[in-house]
Amino acid sequence: MAMDHARLAKNSFLVIGRAGMDLYPDPPGTRTEDATHFECALGGSSANICVAFTRQGGQAALVTCVSDDAVGRYCLNQLDGYGVDRRHVRVEGGEARNSLALAESRIEDHQSVIYRNGAADFRMNVDDVASIDYDAYGALITTGTVLAAEPSRRATFEAFRLARAAGLPLVFDIDYRPYSWASADDAAATYSAAGELCDIIIGNDVEFGFMAGDRAKGLDKARQLARTSASIVVYKMGEKGSITLTPDEEFRTGIYPAEALKPTGAGDSFMGGFMASMAQGLPLVDAVRRGSACASIVVSRVGCAPAMPSRAELDAFLESHPGPTTD
């Protein structure tokens, strides 16, 4: 289907998914098991994406649930501090808990430990998405993790339906986290159903290979989605860059080399830089390059949400760094 660029120009995004607390052993380079001090930051892929948008001069509203405890309130305070609209964030009581991640600021033997027991964000339900004024936004964005359990899965597909009825482009970050799913077959079937509904799909080679049922057929799956349903598919390949596919063209983009401090946060930052650039009306190739530059900036800094570059920082990075490695 054709992309509604006029809607994207609103530069206001509705993002479905989790917010959580991230802990980083300090100083950078410290292994978790050796740590005596930790830095604390807002985390969770969708919250990170919201922060990435606000740093790029856009507006973002998060749709999720947080736990009725100190960690949940921490996430709410952090969202406020970053200027993220949280009117659609519901506090969930009982035994629900926010996601918690311990992630090291190191590349060699990097360890990330994710706690998702009784995840509050999975409690998002149909009522949470039914009351949203979708006309106020330029696009609906979701990460794949929100589809891993009920009732958030059903709620997300209902949000897709309501957003589509309001004319919003649907953007899907595959974001496959095996530990969140009951089975790989369930994940593959659900991702395929979501992918067929969305206008923009972003994922890495492993994730597209997973959707295809064969690691070697991931690019074929991306091409098939670009031919049949999506307007834009971005197939990321790590240090080898990415391949962007549309119904009319296919092009390859390299990465901006950076001295990486950690591997986490790159995908969320890419999404923020890419979609903010699309909202500005930049050509698709420039949007991909700016997203790639955002990813390089984030992996060179501690944290995810606090590492997201401002628009001025992104422009300065592009002026001072050579172009992508390959095109």
Question: Explain this structure to me?
Answer:
This protein has 327 residues and is an alpha/beta fold. It has a single domain (5-18, 46-64, 122-320), classed as Ribokinase (UDP-N-acetylmuramoyl-L-alanine:D-glutamate ligase, 3-Layer(aba) Sandwich). The protein has helices at 5-8, 45-55, 70-82, 126-130, 152-165, 184-195, 205-212, 218-228, 266-279, 284-299, 311-320; strands at residues 12-16, 20-26, 37-43, 59-67, 85-92, 99-103, 112-115, 139-143, 170-173, 200-204, 232-236, 242-245, 250-253. The protein has a 9-stranded mixed β-sheet with strand order 5-4-1-8-9-10-11-12-13, sandwiched between helices. A 4-stranded mixed β-sheet has the order 3-2-6-7. It is globular.
Strand content: 15-25%
Shape: globular
CATH fold node name: UDP-N-acetylmuramoyl-L-alanine:D-glutamate ligase
The level-1 CATH class: Alpha Beta
Summarize the amount of helix as a percent range. 25-40%
Spatial order of the strands in the main sheet?
Answer: 5-4-1-8-9-10-11-12-13
Detail the poorly predicted runs. Answer: none
> What is the CATH superfamily classification?
Ribokinase
Class by SSE composition = alpha/beta
- Using only C-alpha atoms, the radius of gyration works out to 18 Å
Distance between the termini: 27 Å
Q: What summary fits the major beta sheet?
A: 9 strands, mixed
